[in-house]
Design a protein that fits this description.
The protein is α/β, with parallel strands linked by helices. About 40% of the residues lie in helices and about 25% in strands. It has a 6-stranded mixed beta sheet, with helices on both faces. The longest helix has 17 residues, at about 170-185. The radius of gyration is 18 Å and the shape is globular.
Length: about 240
């Protein structure tokens, strides 16, 4: 469970989060939506301790991450997988090397053969078998996102953070990513946080939606409750993103 309590975060005079509260249950898939610049990606960085709040706190399974030392924070971060908006693959590395990087960087305890098997397993999960030797330049945008997801999964994380997973993709590739998010959440029982503008992702994939507006939670509920809302702010957001 992730518990976010009264978080405030500013950058100079820009008050991004102004008393943000949210609870994310274990195994839940939640979408964080809101206008560009409202603090969605900042929130992800706060959750994994890459940024520190000005006030308020975050708990991961009952442990306040502002009260632990660097070693303990590192252990908490190892429980997270992160799919970056641009996939963030290393161009000089093969697909195999990109996916295996978290294992290698964390002190590889697997033999070369077992690591290769693990990478192949991850590629099967994201429906890209047999592309281990390709370079990122040989992949489409959708394929890069799926390789990035395979890399996020290889450490068997309890939590996965998705930062705009379908941005820049064609509709078919976007649908494939949505299906993978749903598949992973149900089969691996991960807790997934999806920052997105994509209302198709919101409607088809997540259990719960939280809408950020003016630095706070403006709406929290199911996708159905969101789309049926008569609130002017919510309707305006949905109409502009559909």
């Amino acid at each position: 469970m992730i518990k976010i309590v009264n978080i405030h975060k500013s950058f100079d005079t820009n008050n991004v989060l102004r008393g943000f509260d949210l609870e994310i249950e274990t195994g839940q898939t939640i979408a964080i939506i809101g206008r560009s610049g409202c603090g969605k990606s900042v929130l992800l960085k706060l959750i994994v301790g890459l940024l520190k709040p000005d006030s308020g706190y975050i708990e991961i399974d009952g442990k306040r991450i502002d009260k632990i030392n660097e070693k303990e924070l590192y252990e908490v971060r190892r429980r997270f997988g992160f799919l970056f908006q641009g996939a963030a693959l290393f161009d000089s590395m093969t697909v195999e090397e990109n996916i295996g990087l978290p294992i290698v960087e964390n002190g590889n305890e697997l033999s070369s053969g077992k690591l290769k098997n693990k990478i192949a397993e991850m590629l099967e999960i994201v429906d890209l078998p047999g592309i281990e030797k390709k370079k990122p330049a040989e992949l489409s945008g959708g394929m890069k996102k799926r390789v990035g997801l395979a890399r996020a999964l290889i450490t068997n994380p309890d939590f996965i953070l998705f930062d705009e997973p379908t941005t820049g993709l064609d509709p078919i590739s976007s649908d494939n990513i949505d299906l993978l998010i749903k598949k992973i959440s149900t089969t691996l029982n991960t807790t997934s946080i999806v920052v997105t503008h994509d209302m198709f992702t919101v409607k088809d994939v997540v259990d719960k939606v939280a809408m950020l507006h003016n630095g706070k939670i403006y709406f929290e509920g199911t996708p159905e409750e969101l789309t049926q809302s008569k609130d002017a702010v919510i309707k305006n957001f949905i109409n502009r993103t559909e």
